[in-house]
């Protein structure tokens, strides 16, 4: 029985993963590249401004040195002219060579860019499918074990679990460790952030369990009371956790509006994965139910 659930969960993960992979290829990665270019240009402009000021100061000093040391060297004008002709020939040769070098560099850049885009496409699509398959397998096992305790009918139970999964795996950790756009600065190392993430996932699981338990107990009296009771622990975490924790991820080179859009797209994409997993799982469940009922009917008709 659990093997059937796991199989449907993997198939559901494949469906969600393909959709997520396409999203990353056509939306997520181009947006990330845009933010990377914006941050790079911002940093380049700052550095260029500093260099410009530095060059102005040195130009002023060189000008004074030239006036003081060579103010009377007017008798060498013709010799300088002949030297200018020879230099012009060299410059022409160098320019011709540089043109060929620039063309070769452009062709090499185009080729490397095409290879990079192909590699990026494969990695994005493949990682999206693998991530969704992992979530689909976890979802199927959790549903098999927790299905009797989840509220609602069979189809609703899947969506309740998917909502709890998104809240635990993505929403709660992002309250402390939000999605980092390109160029983000982290005050903690990767090991510390990984430990915090695991702890926040555990916190999300506990809060989800409390919310579901409160809903089941209070909804027997009134549905609205159950919804209110289930929302209390969720709202408490959403409000308190960001206020009680320091800022770990910052984006100094991007505006707050751009960062908000980036994080919102990341949140919607992860929510879409869980929604597709739940919907696909229900579809596979219904297909399996129809097949099993048809097989049972055929066996009854074939029996003497």
Automatic annotation (TrEMBL):
Residues 42-110 are annotated as: Disordered. The keyword Isomerase does not apply. The keyword Endoplasmic reticulum does not apply. It comes from Natrarchaeobaculum aegyptiacum. Keywords: Membrane, Transmembrane, Transmembrane helix. InterPro entries: CbtA_put. Pfam families: CbtA. The chain crosses the membrane at residues 9-26, 121-146, 158-176, 196-215, 227-249, 261-284. This is Cobalamin cluster protein.
């Amino acid at each position: 029985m659990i093997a059937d659930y796991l199989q449907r969960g993997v198939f559901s993960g494949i469906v969600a993963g393909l959709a997520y992979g396409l999203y990353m290829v056509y939306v997520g990665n181009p947006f990330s590249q845009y933010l990377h270019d914006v941050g790079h240009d911002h940093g380049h402009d700052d550095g260029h401004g500093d260099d410009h000021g530095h060059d102005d100061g040195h130009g002023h000093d060189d000008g004074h040195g030239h006036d003081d040391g060579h103010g009377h060297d007017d008798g060498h004008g013709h010799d300088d002219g002949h030297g200018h002709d020879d230099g012009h020939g060299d410059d022409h040769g160098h320019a011709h060579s540089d043109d060929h070098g620039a063309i070769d560099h452009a062709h090499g850049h185009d080729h490397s860019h095409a290879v990079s885009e192909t590699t990026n496409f494969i990695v994005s699509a493949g990682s999206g499918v693998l991530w969704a398959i992992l979530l689909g397998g976890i979802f199927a096992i959790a549903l098999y074990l927790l299905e009797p305790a989840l509220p609602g009918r069979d189809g609703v139970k899947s969506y309740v679990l998917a909502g709890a999964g998104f809240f635990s795996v993505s929403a709660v950790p992002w309250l402390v460790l939000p999605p980092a756009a390109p160029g983000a600065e982290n005050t903690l190392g990767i090991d510390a952030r990984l430990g915090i993430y695991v702890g926040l996932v555990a916190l999300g699981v506990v809060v989800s369990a409390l919310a579901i338990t409160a809903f089941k107990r209070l909804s027997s009296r009134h549905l609205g009371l159950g919804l209110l009771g289930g929302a209390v622990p969720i709202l408490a975490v959403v409000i308190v956790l960001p206020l009680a924790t320091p800022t770990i991820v910052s984006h100094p080179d991007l505006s707050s509006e751009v960062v908000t859009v980036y994080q919102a797209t990341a949140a919607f994409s992860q929510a879409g994965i869980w929604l597709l997993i739940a919907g696909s799982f229900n579809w596979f469940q219904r297909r399996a139910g129809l097949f099993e009922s048809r097989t049972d009917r055929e066996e009854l008709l074939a029996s003497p």
